[in-house]
Amino acid sequence: MEPRRSIGRLAGATVDPEQPAIVVDQVTETFRLFHERPSGLKERLYRFRRASFTDFNALEDVSFTVEHGESVAVIGPNGSGKSTLLKLLARILPPDEGTVLTNGRVASLLELGAGFHGDLTGRENIRLNGAILGLSGAEIAERFDEIVEFAGVEHLLDTAVRTYSSGLEVRLGFAVAVTVDPDILLVDEVLAVGDAEFQERSLERMRRFRDEGKTFVLVSHDLDAVRDMCDRAIVLDRGRVVFDGPVVEGVELYKQRVASSAAPRVDRRRGPRQVAIDDVQLLGSDGELVSDIARSSNLVLRVRLRALTEVEVCSVGAVVSRGDGTHLYELHTTWQGVGVGPLRVDQEAVVEIRFTAHLLAGHYAIACSVTDASGRDTWAVVAEAARFAVQPAPGGAGLVDLSASAVVTDGPARRTGDGKAGPIPLPRLQRRQARG
Predict the structure, then answer these.
(1) 359-407 pLDDT, tens per residue?
(2) 279 shares its domain with 245
(3) Are residues 101 and 33 in the same domain?
């Protein structure tokens, strides 16, 4: 049975408001990594075997939907599949499995100036590149002056593009792409090139595009630009979607995963191993296992330990930290006047640590340890005994929940949003309500 694969448009170049702007359904994209590829027919016949290769899944079972007017950032480490995903959306690559559908005219800023011919003039390349992007001759003529003004190449318009600097060529490519007036704009790292003035003008043009209610998908390692330009983030890691939600939470998760992968793993255990940690559970107030909680939730960390030798007294510790290893809170049972023991060989004990997670949206980890009563010798450590995520909620952004509230003591006041994932600027909120 052939794998299901499809790529196309939901409604051609006309936008169907009843359908999403982008649909990606169970998409997998596989490339072959050749280990030793014969360079010619003679070598292939001599070796009498095929080239050896390994299949590499650049994307694996990726699914998401983007509605009209959404601004979405796709972030993740190098090699996570971000550019491959945009090439699928731009119809440059077909998916090996799954479905990719777009609803409306798509313009992609993946490789600026990729359609330019070095021996043609700037004027001729504007017409050529505009035609490649789907503009008619009349549309190119109508927007020609706007393209030239934005690119700032009036004095070089009738000069061969091969004489342009790389920055001027990028300016011209961007100017042509953004004047296509698409319904869906795909941008891949183009904000990292050009001078500061060009980058600011590019950002301003894309803000205007976003504020007009168009759909916008951005791939960038500039996390400040991601937070500024987008409301939603999709985090990719090794070709899979590991997060899809508010941009503030997505950026924080990405930063934590990067810092966590770069942090060295240190075994803090010293001295004889006298106690083993057999099980650790994170429970909610109802006694059920939890991994996703609301802010300021009551939690129970249940630690089951077992003595390997006779133990007079020991202490159980817990450290709550962010994914990047930043310690937020630490406690040990002996600090609270509670010791565990005496324990016979193979005797078990269960320790419950109860706390309230006064944390804002983000991803957190808990490490557990068992030490002697003084805390000097560590007998057992579980570096990531439990992980949990705090859901976004009204109140603010940051690290800890201060239970703040805002009131207007003088002058008129109004409700501006649902409080999810931080503030929403009032003009954009009004536009969204008007659309729907």
Answers:
(1) 877 778 888 988 888 777 888 888 888 888 887 666 666 667 777 777 7
(2) no
(3) yes
